[in-house]
Amino acid sequence: MPSFAAVLAAYQDLPNRVHSLMLSTVNGAGLPHASYAPYVIDADYQIYIFTSGLSAHTANLQSSGLASVLLIEDEAAAPQVFARQRIAYDCQASLLPRGTAAWEAVADRFEQRFGEIIPMLRSLDDFQIFCLSPQAGRFVMGFGAAYAVDSENLNQLVGPPQTGPDNASA
Q: Residue limits of the Pyridoxamine 5'-phosphate oxidase N-terminal domain (predicted)?
C-alpha cells in the first residue's frame, strides 16, 4: 500500500491530469442525466464548467443547483481498469453571471487550458459558466484504498483508507 503522502499527491495531481469530468444531474421530474464537460479547477477546488444553454445538464443545474462529478484516470494510463484512480464530488452548482469580472476571468482560464475554441464559445450567447462547489468527496486510489475528502479543506484527505464493499467504486 502506498504511503499516505503518495496517496495525497495522487489526489492533488489527478485534476491536472484529466481535462473533462463526468457530470450527473437530475431533472425536475427526478430523472438522472449523465453527461461530461471539460473543466477548470482553482486552488480552492472550485470547479468550473462552460456549458451550452441547449444541453439538458445546463437546464438541470439551473433548476436543482446540484451535481455529482467524477474525475477519473484515463483507461490507457491505468494499470488496471477495475482500479482506476478517481475523485467523486457532491457539488452545489451556481451560475456565474455573464459579463462579470468573475465570468471573464474563468473564461480566460478556459482559453488558457483549451485554446482556440474558447473565443468562439465565448461569442455564443447560450454558453454559460457554472461553478461547482464540492460539499463532500471521495478519492479512490485503487483496490482497498478509498479516502474521504476533507470537507473543511478540499486539498486534503481523511485517512486511513475506508473499507467495505463499495470502497473500489466512486
A: 10-140
